[in-house]
């Protein structure tokens, strides 16, 4: 029986078995985020079984 996706994600983050695209790193820097901030982000698993974080962003309140 396959493990639930969220368990796989948590394991990948916990063991640092994830990769980031250059786009994700650029977005992280633009929003003044660090790795601790993005380690709860949701990306996807690659064909190699590693977790790929494709983008990151800071959630802000909309301006009225």
Features:
64 residues; globular; alpha+beta; three-stranded mixed beta sheet
- Separate helix tally: 3
Q: Residue share in helices?
A: 25-40%
Low-confidence stretches: none
Order of helices and strands: HEHHEE
Beta-strand percentage? 5-15%
| CA-based gyration radius | 13 Å
- Output the structural class: alpha+beta
**How many beta-strand runs?**
3
Strand order of the largest sheet: 1-3-2
Distance between the first and last residues' Cα:
48 Å
Overall geometric form? globular
Give an account of the 3D structure.
The chain has 64 residues and is α+β, with helices and mostly antiparallel strands. The chain has one domain. 36% of the residues lie in helices and 12% in strands. The chain is built from 3 helices and 3 strands. A 3-stranded mixed beta sheet has the order 1-3-2. The chain is globular. The mean pLDDT is 79.
Helices and strands in order, then pairings?
Elements: H1 5-14, E1 18-20, H2 22-30, H3 35-38, E2 44-45, E3 51-53
Parallel strand pairs: 1-3
Antiparallel strand pairs: 2-3
How would you summarize this macromolecular structure in one to three sentences?
The chain has one domain. Helices cover 36% and strands 12% of the residues. It has three helices and three strands.
